[in-house]
Amino acid sequence: MDGRLVRISGAITNSGVTEALEGLPSVWPFVSADFRRWDERDDALGFQEPSFERHIDDWARLAMEQLYAELLAGAPSNIAVLDVCAAWDSHLPLDLSVSRVAVVGMNMQELRANLRATEALTQDLNCRPKLPFGDGEFDVATLALSIQYLVHPQEIFTEIHRVLRPGGLAIVSFSSLSFPWKAVSVWSRSFHDGVAQCRTV
Fold it and tell me: What is the rounded CA–CA span in Å between residue 80 and residue 43?
């Protein structure tokens, strides 16, 4: 949040991902067809019942939690966090001092089970990408394991930027796993290609 470079202890420095952000296009490179899905039915149908399963294995979960810990090390006390596409676990470090953790997701039972949440809101961001918060309300925004399902990512990232305070931090994490019938086309074309997925994000 202070503009410093952070060395991630578990990073694989020769994976190719380190160069993923070089030579990015200066204009939006995607078309509407890139965000179509095999299953275009209402996303709410998949969230009628809560699911408390983890969608990554224990090693991946620990790596993500370690990433959060390293990125947020030295953060000031009482920060405000927004968890976008949230569920029952926000993966925040236990020793992180927060004044607010707003979670936005699809199933209220899952959100209410989130022990770090101070407020919970259900909203289908594929139908309504505008976030219901004022400008500059948050210090940190997280989007974990869901970027591949967003059909309006540009609008959502614009909203994340709007609700973050100047100098705020946005953390996007993803894995090679997904529900392929709900993943957008541009993501489905790059399954198991971390470099391509980083460039897409």
Answer: 28
pLDDT tens-digit readout, 177-201: 778 888 888 888 876 677 677 777 7
Q: 67 is written with which tokens?
A: 């990433």
Handedness of CA 37, 38, 41, 42 (dihedral sign): negative
- Extract the tokens encoding 135: 């400008």
Give the amino acid at 65: E
**Cα(189)–Cα(197) distance, rounded to whole angstroms?**
9
Q: What is the pTM of this model?
A: 0.89
Which stretches of the chain are DSSP H helices?
A: 58-71, 108-112, 153-163, 185-188, 194-200
Alpha-carbon gap, residue 35 to 183, rounded angstroms: 8
Q: State yes or no: pLDDT of 109 exceeds 80.
A: yes
β-bridge mates for residue 104, sequence order: 84, 121
pLDDT, tens digit (0-9, with 9 covering 90-100), for 137-173: 999 999 998 999 999 999 999 999 999 999 999 999 8
Q: Is 5 helix (H, G, I), strand (E, B) or coil?
A: coil
